[in-house]
Amino acid sequence: MEDSKTIEIQQKELAPYAVKSSETLGRKYLEQEHPLRTPFQRDRDRIIHSTAFRRLEYKTQVFIYHEGDYYRNRLTHTLEVQQIARTIARVLRLNEDLVEAIALAHDLGHTPFGHRGEAVLNNLMRKHGYNRGFEHNRQGLRIVDKLEKKYPHFPGLNLSFETREGIIKHNTTYDLPAEEKDYEEFIKNPSPSLESQVVDFADEIAYTCHDLDDGLKSGIITFNDLKTIQLWKDIESSSYVENVSHDLKRIVIIRNLINFLVEDMVTQSLSNIKKAAVCSVDEVRKQSPILSHSPELKEKHTQMSNFLQEHMYANYRIIRMAQKAARVIEDLFDSYIKEPKQLPPHTQEKITKEPIEIIVCDYIAGMTDRFALLEYRKLFDPNFTV
């Protein structure tokens, strides 16, 4: 149990609509609480020490790891989401420990090669009769509930309900929350906590700004390309970046863009919270999502997102790599299904407990980019010595 001093501090500093660690809905498996850390601090620490978290370092954000050392990967993206989310949470007087835990876990279920890898695994699972396919939020929950092996008395990490809720209900432009009918413990509420909603917005802010940054750095997009994008023009005109190098100009504008998006979201969200008159976490969960950007910014942000789709994600360099990645995952999946004895012994042992398709899907989804490429060479390159 938490000490009375921690409870007193949270009651005083956190907003009425924030999740209090002393009021957590608990864990699947009963554990004695830690004398020094709140439940959500323990969740955060368990996530950081997990195998799935470490693997994020070599999983694609946009560029595959060998494209360059300075582009974002899933791990650096996750840390940037965490930083932005904590800033927002502090201003909104939300539970920063919970926000941090959800942010660190939000991409644990991602496959190698980014969203392209996810799409391929989804199609493969559907082709093999699994109508639910594959979805990385669902896989993230499966990882923390079952696949991680860190404790002798229970499977997974045994995270708090609120952290698990944030994983399964993660929802941005590119992330759809898992179908709630499959997760009965989450279906009674249309919305997750505000802490979870904060992470959704932090994720969208991070990947919009940092994908722009990496796109400019790589030369896939240019400053000239962005002249028609109103939000970029607004930030550039207020950034005072004349007579500076292109690199410094890029850095300054991206930093100011992040600040602008965060400030707009905080201002609008405070207004929304006041209008909704929510005074508890239960009231938050019973409403549609409360946090948002201003209507004016939404339109501009949509224009920028469409620009990224057309000029960044559809660039021939990205498409070429995505097609290669698709072939790698498809061939690995088919090869393992046809001959499961190619799988490592510890993975083969699981076949008696679950269908082979599920085992293979878990195995591939857990791979890093470089491991998947290496495994492909081992299986299909006759000149490669295992």
Give the SSE layout.
Elements: H1 4-13, H2 39-48, H3 51-55, H4 74-92, H5 96-105, H6 114-127, H7 136-147, H8 161-168, H9 194-218, H10 230-237, H11 246-276, H12 281-285, H13 295-313, H14 316-338, H15 345-348, H16 356-365, H17 369-380
Keywords for this structure?
386 residues; 17 helices; Hypothetical protein af1432
How much of the sequence lies in strands comes to under 5%
CATH fold category name of one domain:
Hypothetical protein af1432
Number of strands: 0
Shape, principal axes of CA atoms: globular
Tell me the major beta sheet.
none
Order of helices and strands: HHHHHHHHHHHHHHHHH
Termini gap: 51 Å
CATH architecture of one domain: Orthogonal Bundle
DSSP helix fraction: 55-70%
CATH superfamily of one domain: Hypothetical protein af1432
Radius of gyration from the alpha-carbon trace, in angstroms = 22 Å
The averaged pLDDT comes out at: 91
